[in-house]
From TrEMBL, chain A:
Organism: Brettanomyces naardenensis (Yeast)
Keywords associated with the record: Cytoplasm, mRNA processing, mRNA splicing, Nucleus, Ribonucleoprotein, RNA-binding, rRNA processing, Spliceosome, tRNA processing
Protein name in the entry: DEKNAAC103943
SUPFAM superfamilies from the UniProt entry: Sm-like ribonucleoproteins
Localization (cell): Cytoplasm; Nucleus
GO BP term, example: tRNA processing
Automatic annotation (TrEMBL), chain B:
Domain Sm: 28-101
SUPFAM superfamilies the UniProt entry points to: Sm-like ribonucleoproteins (SSF50182)
Superkingdom: Eukaryota
Family stated for the protein in its record: Belongs to the snRNP Sm proteins family.
GO molecular function (one): RNA binding
Organism this protein belongs to: Brettanomyces naardenensis
Keyword Transmembrane attributed: no
GO biological process per UniProt: mRNA splicing, via spliceosome
Subunit details: LSm subunits form a heteromer with a doughnut shape.
Protein name: LSM complex subunit LSM5
Gene: LSM5
Coiled-coil spans in chain: none
Keywords recorded for this protein, A-Z: mRNA processing, mRNA splicing, Nucleus, Ribonucleoprotein, RNA-binding, Spliceosome
Amino acid sequence: MSAVPTSASTSNFLSDITNSSVIVKLNNGFEYHGVLSSIDGFMNIVLENSIEMVGSKEIRKYNELFVRGNNVMYIASQ
Amino acid sequence: MSEDHSVITDVATGTSELDIGASIPSVLPLELIDKSIGSKIWAIMSDFHEFVGTLVGFDDFVNIILSDVTEYDVARKVVCKRSKLLLSSRNLAMLVPEGKGPEI
């Protein structure tokens, strides 16, 4: 399904964390705390009810948000 | 320059220490990472971020899964903990097995 090859461990992790609370950190330092609704092999991500954080400061809220995969540094389970 | 090459080439086996393409290295680069699965590893990014955690797995692009992670922002001297994460290979520079992490 995904556009790039994934090993069992990475695809298992992604299926484990879909529909649960995650932290997505971008290369520019921004963090998005929300519910992971979808992810693909490019690490394109759709988050629901996400909060934009810079450092420990809350900046904005989004009901639904698409993050382009090239910006993603990591996806962590919360 | 050509003299140096001729000294090392082994005619009998057809292999040369300098010619990486013709000989099979004893340990492939990704074998080192594969052997580190289940143990501590230290990931150093090209942007002053470092991660220390237990290596769960990795894919063809060396995107890596870490558990019990400590994240170090070396430039800002910020440390934080994550339980499990998928680290993108986009800015990954180095992986150090048995890594102790940075002194911050």
